[in-house]
Amino acid sequence: MSALITPAIVDFSMQAGFGAVAILLNTEKFYDLVGSSTFLVCTGLAYRDSPRFLRQSVLAGSVSVWALRLGSFLFTRVLKDGEDKRFRIAKKKPLVFSMFWFLQGVWVLVTLAPILLALGEKSDVPIGAPDYAGWVILVIRVHVHNDKYYQIFIAVVPVRYISSIFCQKTSCTLNNIVYILISNLLTISHKASNSFQDVHISAEIQRRQQHCQQHNNNKRTLYSNMAA
């Protein structure tokens, strides 16, 4: 578990530092970019100290490509849209916004834990059929865009699977299972949050329309009384 200590410190330090800046500037535009960058930094640090076996190189490379792809996509989208509607209300409340940054740190550490443990291994295991199968699944999954939010959270599952094979330890397998469960919960939560946000916005629009209609009715009544 010592392989997780340094990345954990780096992870939460990045979230705390950039989160403080985001709260001060009241902006969410670099939230996802920092999350992806944390994957890159933590993976790079772990790979630097690893024996750099073939499997470790593939794992580190896969995570890096995925993080770059995800980060660039999300950052470009928020710049194009001008905002991330998930944080429309949260960014106005420092305590709530800080919790988003903390949860991002947890997400990074939990999902990256099997990779970090794999990169911390000092003995190699021969490449086998499960490795090739995992790599093929990873390549196929990365190029499937049926559901972009599911893609964000689940695309790297095959990498976790490969890492559990490499570690050949219960801890890695458990981390892999936990990752899959949390990933699906995050996906469901994200969609539920979007649905709630849409309902909230629709209710606000309806309330404003009713207010305008009532105002217009009052004006018409007033004009009718004046004409009479």
How would you describe the overall organization of this protein?
With 228 residues, this protein is mostly helical. It is built from eight helices and no strands. It is elongated. Residues 149-201 have low confidence and may be disordered.
β content, as a range? under 5%
Helix content: over 70%
Poorly predicted spans: 149-201
Quote the distance from N terminus to C terminus.
85 Å
Q: What is the radius of gyration computed over CA atoms, rounded to a whole number of angstroms?
A: 23 Å
Give a count of the beta strands, DSSP E runs of length 2 or more: 0
The secondary structure category is mainly alpha
Highlighted features:
228 residues, mainly alpha, 80% helix, 0% strand, elongated
Please outline the helices and strands:
Layout: H1 5-25, H2 31-48, H3 54-81, H4 94-119, H5 129-142, H6 148-154, H7 157-167, H8 170-227
Helix pairs in contact: 1-2, 1-4, 2-3, 2-4, 3-7, 4-7, 4-8, 5-7, 6-8, 7-8
Structure summary:
The chain contains eight helices and no strands. The chain is an all-alpha fold and 228 residues long. The protein is elongated and about 95 Å long.
